[in-house]
Amino acid sequence: MALARRIIPCLDVKGGRTVKGTRFRGLRDCGGIAELSARYALQGADELVFLDIAASGEKRGTRTEWVEEVARNIAIPFTVGGGVASERDVERLLRSGADKISVNTAALRDPSLVTRLAEAFGRQCVVVAIDARPRGGRWEVYGRGGSLPAGRELFAWASEAEERGAGEILFTSIGHDGTGRGFAVEAVARLTGSLRIPVIASGGAGRLDDFHEVFARGGADAALAAGVFHSGRLSIPEVKAFLRERNIVVR
User: Fold this and answer.
1) Overall domain count for the chain
2) Residue 39: predicted pLDDT
3) Is residue 1, in this structure, part of any structural domain at all?
4) CB-side exposure of 97: number of CA atoms within 13 Å?
5) What average pLDDT does range 191-203 have in this prediction?
6) CATH of residue 23
7) Residue span of the structural domain in which 106 resides
8) Average of pLDDT values for 184-203?
C-alpha cells in the first residue's frame, strides 16, 4: 500500500504575526499564530510548519514564546525553523513544544551542523529547508530568507544533506512562492527521484489540481502551503477530499 501523502500548512511568522508574500517579498498580515494553528489542527492538517522568517536576518534564534503559543493549540507534529544554528537552539525549541526542527541558512554556512543535529537528536528530527530558484542554467540555492546566494546547487545540496543525516528535505521554489500558479513539479520530481528521504514540496499552491499534480507527477511525500489556506481560498478537508477522489492516498 502506498504511503499516505501529507498536507502541511505553514506559518511564516514575523513580529508575532503570520505573514505571507509573493516570492518572499511584499509581506502582508494573515492573522494570529494561535488562531491559525488551532484552525489547521481542527481541519485535519497532518503537520504544521512554523518559520520565524526574520530570525536569520536578525542573527537570533526563533522566539520560543511564539513556539510555546502554537504548541498549546495543537496536537499534531510540529516543525519549527528560523535561526536554528546549534544543538542548544534545538534543545530549546524541543523543550518549547517542537517535534522537528528546520535548518537552512546555518546549515549552508556550516554543513556539519546537519550531521551534528542528526547524531544528537535523530535524523527524524532534522528537516533541511532549501530555498532555490533557476539561475544561469541551474537551480541556485539561497539563504537568509531567499536573499543571499549560497553558491550551491539544489540537487547537489539536497543529496549532501541526505548523506549528512537529514530526515526530510523541504524544498521551496522562490519563483513559485505565493503566486498560486502551481508547484515547481519538474524540480520536485527530480528531487524525489534522486533522494531516499521524504521531500516536502513548497511554493505555488493555488488550485486543487496543483496538489494532485505535485503528488502524481512530482512524487512529493508532502505538500506545504500557506496563502491559499490563510485566505480561505482552499481548505485542508477540501484538498484531501479532492485527492482521495483521484486515488491519492492521504491521511
Assistant:
1) 1
2) 96
3) no
4) 19
5) 98
6) 3.20.20.70
7) 6-245
8) 98
